[in-house]
Specification:
mainly alpha; elongated; 69 residues
Length: 69
């Protein structure tokens, strides 16, 4: 029973790590960026999420724009 729990935790950790690496690769490796537009994101201290989302949308890196209702 104890080995099943630790095995499940290892599997969960491995899945999260693979997802994180895939997301990082999409931003930093040009071949995985499917937008076709090279994107550079410069984030300064104190930059809000909406400012980051707006800059990504304007550069064409993302196609959906979030709006605060």
């Amino acid at each position: 029973m104890l080995s099943d729990k630790s095995s499940a935790q290892k599997t969960l950790f491995a899945g999260i790590a693979m997802l994180f690496l895939l997301l990082c690769g999409m931003f930093f490796i040009p071949g995985l960026n499917t937008s076709g537009i090279p994107s550079r994101l410069v984030v300064h201290k104190g930059t809000g999420f909406m400012s980051i989302a707006d800059s990504l949308y304007m550069s064409g890196a993302i196609r959906n724009r979030w709006q605060i209702v």
